[in-house]
Amino acid sequence: MKTYELGIKLNGQAVSAQVHAHETLLDVLRKKLGAKEVKNGCGKGDCGACTVMLDGTAVNACLTLALQANGREVTTVRGVGTEDQPHPIQESFVRHGAIQCGYCTPGMVVSAKALLDRIPNPDRGQIREGISGNLCRCTGYNKIIEAIENAASKAQS
Amino acid sequence: MSENPKNKTEGPDYQYIGKPMPRHDAWDKVFGRTKYADDFDMPGMLYGKVLRSAYPAAKILSIDTSEAEKMPGVEAVLTAKDVPNNETVTRFGQTHQVGGFEGLYRVLADKKVRYMGDAIALVAAETEEIAEEAVGLIKVGYEPLPGVFDPLEAIKPGAYQVGEAESNVICSYQVRKGDVEEGFARSDVIIENTYRVPFVEHAFMEPESGMAWVDDAGVITIRVSTQVIEHFRDVAEVLGVPHNKVRVIAPMVGGGFGSKEDISVESFIALLAWKTGKPVKMTWTREESIRSSSKRHPYVMRYKTGATKDGKLMAMEAELISDAGGHIYLSPWVLLYSTVDATGPYDISHVKVDASTVLTNNTFCSANRGFGSPQVCYAYECQMDELAKKLNLSPLEIRKKNYLHKGDALATGRVLDYAVETEQTAEKALAALGEPSKPSSSTEKIGRGLASGFMSYGRMTFLHDTSRSFVSVELDGSVTVKCGLQDIGGGQASSVASIAAEVLGVHMEEVKVFIGDTALTPIAGTTTATRMLYMSGNATVKAAEAVKNNLLPKAAEMLEADPKDLVFRDKKVFVKGAPTHGIPFDQVVKACAADGIQLYNVAQFNAPFRELMDFKTGQGQVFPDFTFGSHAAEVSVDTETGKVKVLKLVACYDVGQAINSLSAEGQLEGGALYGLGYGLIEEVILDKGITLTPSFSEYLIPTALDAPHVRTIMVESRDGAGPFGAKGIGEPSCNSIAPAVANAVTDAIGRRILDIPITPEKILRALGKL
């Protein structure tokens, strides 16, 4: 089967892989680029666990063909912030108890980042809307919403 | 956020216990560092896939694997004949064998298929795609059988036989207390209704996944997303090898909710790795997970409840029939919970409960958060409101006349010897609803509902449950805990860390917890039955206190004080009242090490051990203790569209003592939404055994847009059987939501909808608009 050279900027680093035309960005990130922080919860765009940003817009990596990302910037939760430089959203998620099993967390944090990039000071309705594509079965969303609200107000002040 | 401080009475001066603490595992998770089962790769690993049945009920006439075996890249194709012990009895988390009551576990179907998820063959191949294609090349000859899909049909004599036994009834229990006929004769009002509750999907975010390999010492090692690492015994029996030749490791689990209590991929990947000599990974797709793994049992529940005109409950008669689906698994246990919990947290003189669980050719059912308790809670709490309405009493009034209190006995004779604060929780939950909301349009009706519930924590006492924990202090004063628990997201690991920190007076950051490895961590039992904090928390207290007691004499000598007067806190040991004159904790440890004093302890905590209950009368002590609480809801119902909006939701439960108040609140909030989904939207729909809702676009769970703000109120009686007086909250937290919402809907529209989920369609039907 024919393969193509995929070149993307993954969390600021230029990386490449040989991919098939039918391969999803999710599979390539996890299996060929070692980005295991991107989770697979359903593989068909229902749960949001695989949310990444493509040139700053949140997308489901499972619904994006890898080649659609060619030449573009892909940001995972590790691109939002790391141990050395945590993003306020990440600190807020931890401090507010917004994390239980943590499987939805990488996608949830990326969606929150995309939301705050777009609307720096969202109201609760906008926050709910912003993460409505990310399912969480553990938390009841309360603490996630509080965490995002708090991160936004911190970034504002 | 937390309302906890306001509701807290003055308690002991703990350093960590009861405080809102960010969990240690949260940092790894928020940076995407935590590895779940599917995130591990090994060089040369193969991918495993399962061939599942094409029919819900059929005879298997032949299986031809030759084409699949010939396919390049395929390394193994296995069927039942390749499994050394294809049928076994799963025994986990229990030291006491209770005979034929246990679940039969069959690895691969050979003669007969019993539901659509039945596994028939396994493939291991170089890539997932090859494995998938090879599965498609396996030819199975079936003789389709009629099957039976309704438990009320399956229970009849002469019904289609799902399994090998003559009857589809797996087991039945009875509770007999007083004389119900006399109780009804003395009742002024009697309410009789039949309630139906649906199949529920657990919908954890991480699908079942694992990897197995044979290590360099010949040990079959399985890293798997599970609530029960103790299945190593079952896998060993399947393979016919000694128990100590199978090792199971549980990494952080992406949600369990009961479905990862039963074996999922373990035996499959162990068999494939054993046959090929290579590591084998298997991860189920979401569709495979929904179609094949366990569900919450649907129940048909006929309830007849009688009360005097002043609202005192006189008699309750309940007939419970649960649909176990195609295999037994934990159905007998789940039914036993329903049976014991059937009367609710109420004192009733005359009780008659008859409960049966029945095989059908539907997807099998097993543990699901609440374990048989939410089903009956829905029925008994709807009954309470119907009685209240007929007697012109408020929902709170009628409940207050009947709540059990500490020292009272359940209908099963169990005396409640720990706190029972149901009344307080109901009053607080209802009061927290505040001023009633106003309808936002002329078609909207507002209603309020209350429901109380109770559920056990800790496993059934006749299983003789135990847990172990190892605590050691290192020379630099840091602390190591090794506890074979599974962390499924509830903060299980973090809880034992804070307990060790509290007892030894070190900081949370200085405690490292190793979990979930049958070879390296002492067996702590299952992360199920809301037992982990109760069991492993108590074991950790015991181990940490033993270590502290070892350090005490030396510390007393160094401080020239009486050991009884010493306090361990803030990495120091000091005489009570003189924290500034302390000596650093690590100096005490070093001095003890120099003297050869033992710096570690492994402790075992045993739950109360009891004998089996009497199944004909229900009399016996089945559980260590119970958690009590209430939910209150305010809803608006649009009478034109049937849409229900939850405006306010209050969860008020007695948690005994929160260990980490942030985590305990998280359980209450998450449990509330889990229960709300049950009441309003969730249902696995099966048509003659075929799942019509195999993905999250058909099986809907609440999103952030559906989730109301949940107000949590934690009552802390400090009178539970867990560490520091804690009770368990993981499962009880989702118990009484569905009836609270149902009661609110009834209050709004004046009609009772007996079956959940309460969909807009059912509301419009009840209003006569459909």
Secondary structure tally, helices of chain B: 19
Strand percentage of chain A lies at: 15-25%
Strand order of the largest sheet of chain A: 2-1-5-3-4
> Do you know the CATH topology of the largest domain in chain A?
Ubiquitin-like (UB roll)
Q: What is the CATH homology-level superfamily of the largest domain in chain B?
A: Aldehyde oxidase/xanthine dehydrogenase, molybdopterin binding domain
> In percent terms, what proportion of residues of chain B is strand?
25-35%
Number of strands of chain A: 5
Number of helices of chain A: 6
In the CATH scheme, the class of the largest domain in chain B would be: Alpha Beta
C-alpha-based Rg of chain B, rounded: 27 Å
- How many structural domains in the coordinates of chain A? 2
Q: Profile the largest sheet of chain A.
A: 5 strands, mixed
Structural class of chain A: alpha+beta
Short description:
Chain A has 157 residues and is α+β, with helices and mostly antiparallel strands. Chain A folds into 2 domains: 4-79, Beta-grasp domain (Ubiquitin-like (UB roll), Roll), CATH 3.10.20; 81-156, [2Fe-2S]-binding domain (DNA polymerase, domain 1, Orthogonal Bundle), CATH 1.10.150. Helices cover 36% and strands 16% of the residues of chain A.
